[in-house]
Amino acid sequence: MTDRLTIRRPDDWHVHLRDGAMLAHVAPYTARQFARAIVMPNLSPPVTTVAEGRAYRERIVAAIPAALDFTPLIVAYLTDGTDAEEMARGHAEGVFTAAKLYPAHATTGSAHGVTDVANIMGVLERMADIGMPLLIHGEVTDHDVDIFDREALFIDRTLAPLVARLPELKIVFEHITTAEAAQFVADAPANVAATITPQHLHINRNAMLVGGIRPHAYCLPVAKREHHRLAVRAAATSGSPKFFLGTDSAPHAVHTKEAPCGCAGIFNAPFALESYIAAFDEDGALDRFEGFASEHGPRFYGLPLNQGTITLERGATVVPDRIGDVVPFHAGETLGWRIV
Ligand code: DOR
Ligand code: ZN
Fold first, then answer.
1. Which entry of 248, 281, 321, 325 is annotated as an active-site residue?
2. pLDDT (tens digit, 9 = 90+) per residue, 133-172?
3. Which ligand ends up closest to the CA of 38?
4. How far is ligand 2, taken at its centre, from the CA of residue 293, in Å?
5. Cβ(220) to ligand 1 under 6 A?
């Protein structure tokens, strides 16, 4: 039995670090575990221009203790009015690593999102030309579509046609939650990949709804049925270079989650690696953990692999009930791995 695992330093390819006091509170947790992170731009107002991206990067760097060697990778937020030239300039100047497509009103901070992909086709064509990845929150937003079906329907209505129309565009289907999404990505060409969160490896929709309504298990895309969890887990542990780590850590103050209309988001950054490795261990896939956590992401993005290492070993990690004003994923549980 493997009791200790040393891997190349990992990256988080999808995180929400927020701004202001919340940024100062949560960013060090991500910087302790990861060398780099793709930082999502759904602030209010969102990060849409190169100047805003540069300023946000400076605020993130200022929020992280200098001793932690961490590089935030900034993402532009696409709107119906995004200028292709601004995206290309941000990419060329090293400010924007990628751009994020939020369908309007799909999730937290998506009110300025894209109402129809046709509106940004010129931007996406330019991104394909310059090799700038498109990161997608893949859910339809139509009121008549059941929330548990919104990801699978997005594939048919939007993603599959987009992949066919722009075969050169690098696309990351973010935080996949369904068997359909895992299958689509596995079957797609090499320029289509997906991130997978720790929560979608561990919980199905029962975690939200059995024995009482549990707002801290609520995120978007929402956890689905058990067979979807198993399919997502099989994709993560498959060793396929198309699947990589993206926590979607999304902190919300406890009173905004435990409310009549609670926010979507799970704060998993403090124990993300301990959570992921537990899933890989349970599935007998520890030998594939390094690829998922540290290699597939940078290769897809065309970035260098990290040089340092991190060691995890079997041992108790007790997850507290609260971290400041935020309830972490696995609150009150003890995980079976710890960072050395
Ligand atoms: O659960 C989520 N929370 N899903 C998202 O897409 C956004 C995120 C947030 O920013 O809180
Ligand atoms: Zn997210």
1. 248
2. 999 999 999 999 999 999 999 999 999 999 999 999 999 9
3. 2
4. 17
5. yes
Give the mutation target among 43, 108, 200, 268 for probing the ligand 1 site: most ligand atoms within 8 A of CB.
Answer: 108
Regarding the domain with residue range 12-305, which homologous superfamily does it belong to in the CATH classification?
Metal-dependent hydrolases (3.20.20.140)
Instruction: For residue 199, report the distance from its CA to the centre of ligand 1, in Å.
Output: 13
Is this structure's pTM higher than 0.90? Answer: yes
What is the tens place of the pLDDT at every residue in 227-248?
Answer: 999 999 999 999 999 999 999 9
Query: Which sequence spans correspond to the domains of the chain?
Result: 12-305
Give one DSSP letter per residue of 176-235, joined into a string.
--SHHHHHHHHHS-TTEEEEE-SHHHH--THHHHTTS--GGG--SSPP--HHHHHHHHHH
d(CA 139, CA 83): 24
Angle at 192 between CA 190 and CA 195, to 5 degrees: 120
Residue 248 among the catalytic residues: yes
- Protein residue with its CA nearest to atom 3 in ligand 1: 265
Fill in the amino acid letter for 182: A
